[in-house]
Specification:
566 residues; mainly alpha; three-stranded antiparallel beta sheet; two-stranded antiparallel ribbon; 22 helices; elongated; binds heme C
């Protein structure tokens, strides 16, 4: 740390004497000063040690001056700006992630594809879901999202309107790592989300991926350490490329909050065997008949959740016990087994997202503006790739995936259809939901009760809704994995085709039940073609949520929390 110098008396200071002398030639200097013949003024003589320093300063023996001693408190390395002096190029490129945002505001994915509202009805994602943007926005976006609700403290000191758990901070801020160290992971996690708002000051930054104050990579999240140990990929023993991948895998993975362990973040990796064929029916009591799968597949995760009887939520339209896939980018990348250019199998996240660049002195550094920029591929790549060709390659791959999602018999419209048909079957049997004016909570409770009734209808609906759960899981594993069109397009297509097959069966089953129970319901896709139409059908009032959010931002975040909203 730089020592701050005090203004000190022993430095050059001029002593003016004989002000009344008209020619100044006969200056007499007093004790302790000597005449400088050039300037004709008396200057204080340097004082030999010991110099007496005042309170709060110490003598620096080299300069023989009094200085403020180095702070004994730690430098705040959770604030990335405090790394700028030692690592200017990395810091400056990290700061550029603020530029990675759509020019015309947020990219509202629910408006672009209202079937998402149906798929996630009764869960936070139905309220608000925008396209991801640069790391600089992570903290802002989780606070402003309608998903995190409007947790306000009432007159009795109790929090009302809380929607999320504390672990939702874990992929947004290095302050989470600090709190894990300060108070313990369980004590942090076993709380509601807004409990820690006053601690969250910094967006994703250096301390998330590096040892405090130096360039060594680290895992700051103990849940990632545990998970990578479990599959035999211990961080400390990993290659440089894999170490870099694992820093990203602290967040860009599938995870859930483990209710049996203080709601800590947990990865469902218990049965994953990298590059080994596994029949999950042997490992756990997996009901699927999928046969053998290699590595980190969505089937392995489903087996894990099924075995534990785990659900993220009950869909408020259909009553299905759902899972939400997070964003398994690490898994999908690691699961690539073939590539036209086999060298690419050795690439890690940083090869493509943090390419090497040069600073003004010609030294190489990793560009920390984490994104994919076709125009800034290193020269070693440009011999094969130019930006235009890369753009068309990626667009073509995305188009194939979008065709499976939105084309004739696409998975997204089929999901929408099956959820509403399931609701109509319930209605025909007098089990009331949102369509009968029930609240989200009442609808869920009615369906959960009816599924446990042990009667014929419960058996039929369990069969139908298990298909919905599985199909949506495979679809979500492919579509929530951002960049899968680049990372592993073959896996995306496999999962979407699988979801499609399950949904064809599910819709046939639903149609038969609608007939059996004399339902008058007619499915018309035009009733569900906008977010404005579907959100009310999912029990949501957008304006109300937005107003409550604005109140929360103004009266809690901006008055009590340290975050600087972008
Ligand atoms: C999301 C994780 C992540 C964050 C955040 C991050 N780094 Fe890095 N950093 C890496 C990775 C990964 C590498 C190694 C890249 C490689 O060699 O492929 C790296 C490399 C470095 C290096 C070694 C030299 C170089 O450029 O390759 C320095 C120094 C460094 N980072 C500083 C910083 C500073 C300063 C910050 C904050 C302003 C920061 N990093 C934020 C992941 C991160
Ligand atoms: C601490 C959690 C965390 C870590 C570590 C992390 N990310 Fe992210 N990343 C996020 C979040 C959260 C977002 C979305 C931010 C938003 O939309 O506000 C994101 C967004 C992104 C995006 C989209 C950026 C854009 O401009 O659209 C890319 C690409 C990305 N991350 C790659 C990486 C890579 C590569 C690594 C490892 C070097 C990494 N991330 C490490 C949490 C993390
Ligand atoms: C072979 C190069 C390559 C590797 C390796 C790679 N990515 Fe990507 N990634 C891409 C490309 C290309 C895109 C898509 C960019 C586009 O379509 O504009 C992308 C997209 C993404 C996105 C979505 C960004 C957005 O704008 O929506 C995220 C997040 C992401 N990658 C994270 C990762 C993580 C984490 C890893 C490591 C586990 C990784 N990537 C490894 C090339 C790569
Ligand atoms: C010797 C030629 C060659 C070099 C050098 C090369 N690539 Fe590739 N790359 C390919 C080929 C071939 C494909 C596959 C194209 C296809 O599927 O049609 C590919 C595909 C890709 C893709 C699309 C995603 C994927 O993995 O399929 C990305 C991103 C990519 N390369 C990035 C890079 C980067 C970054 C470098 C430099 C570090 C690089 N490439 C160097 C030949 C090369």
């Amino acid at each position: 740390m730089k020592l701050q110098k005090l203004a000190i008396a022993i430095a050059v200071s001029a002593v003016l004497v004989g002000c009344n002398d008209d020619d100044g030639n006969n200056v007499t200097c007093g004790d302790g000063s000597t005449l400088n013949p050039d300037t004709n003024i008396c200057e204080v003589n340097p004082i030999d040690p010991p110099v007496e320093c005042g309170d709060g300063t110490v003598l620096d023996p080299d300069s023989n001056t009094c200085v403020i001693p180095p702070s004994t408190g730690p430098v705040d390395f959770y604030n990335s700006d405090n790394w700028a002096k030692d690592f200017p190029a990395q810091h400056a490129s990290w700061a550029e992630t603020v530029e990675n945002t759509p020019a015309d505001g947020l990219d509202d994915l629910l408006a672009a594809n209202p079937a998402l509202v149906t798929a996630w009805a009764g869960y936070g994602f139905a309220k608000d879901y925008n396209r991801a943007r640069g790391h600089h926005f992570a903290l802002t976006d989780v606070i402003k999202s309608l998903r995190t609700g409007h947790p306000m403290v009432d007159e009795n000191g109790a929090v009302q309107g809380e929607a999320m758990a504390a672990s939702c901070w874990s992929c947004k801020s290095p302050d989470t790592a600090r709190l894990y160290d300060e108070i313990g992971e369980a004590n942090f996690a076993d709380n509601s989300w807004s409990t820690w708002g006053h601690e969250m000051a910094n967006t994703i930054g250096c301390a998330d991926c590096h040892e405090l104050g130096d360039d060594t990579l680290r895992l700051s999240r103990p849940h990632t350490d545990r998970a990578t140990d479990l599959i035999g990929r211990t961080f400390a023993a990993a290659s440089d490329v894999e170490k870099a991948n694992q820093t990203c895998a602290q967040c860009h993975v599938e995870y859930y909050f483990d209710g049996s362990d203080s709601k800590k973040v947990k990865y469902p990796w218990d049965y994953w065997k990298p590059a080994v064929d596994t029949d999950y029916a042997d490992v756990v009591d997996y009901k699927g008949s999928d046969g053998l799968y290699q590595g980190f597949t969505a089937e392995a995760q489903l087996a894990y959740y099924d075995y534990r009887g785990f659900k993220d939520w009950t869909n408020a339209i259909s009553g299905a016990a759902m899972l939400k896939a997070q964003h398994p980018e690490y898994e999908n990348l690691e699961d690539r087994t073939t590539h036209t250019m086999s060298s690419h199998l050795d690439f890690g996240c940083s090869t493509c997202h943090m390419p090497k660049a040069q600073n003004s002195e010609g030294q190489e550094y990793s560009a920390h503006n984490v994104r994919f920029d076709m125009n800034k591929m290193p020269s070693s790549c440009q011999s094969c790739h130019d930006a235009d060709a890369m753009d068309s390659l990626l667009k073509a791959r995305k188009a194939e995936i979008n065709d499976l999602r939105f084309g004739a018999n696409g998975v997204d419209p089929m999901l929408n259809e099956v959820h509403f048909k399931a609701q109509a079957i319930w209605s025909a049997n007098g089990v009331e939901g949102l369509v009968e004016g029930k609240t989200i909570g009442q609808a869920k409770a009615n369906y959960e009760g009816a599924l446990q009734a042990g009667n014929v209808l419960a058996d039929e609906m369990n069969s139908l809704l298990t298909k919905v759960r599985n199909a949506q899981w495979f679809w979500d594993s492919a579509t929530a994995s951002h960049g899968i069109h680049a990372h592993n397009p073959a896996e995306a297509k496999r999962l979407l085709n699988k979801a499609n097959g399950i949904l064809v069966d599910a819709i046939a089953e639903a149609d038969a039940l609608l007939v059996k129970y004399n339902s008058t319901f007619v499915y018309d896709a035009a009733n569900y073609d906008s977010k404005a139409k579907v959100q009310p059908l999912a029990g949501l009032d957008l304006k109300g949520m937005q107003d409550a959010k604005a109140d929360f931002i103004e009266n809690r975040v901006e008055t009590e929390w340290p975050v600087d909203l972008k």
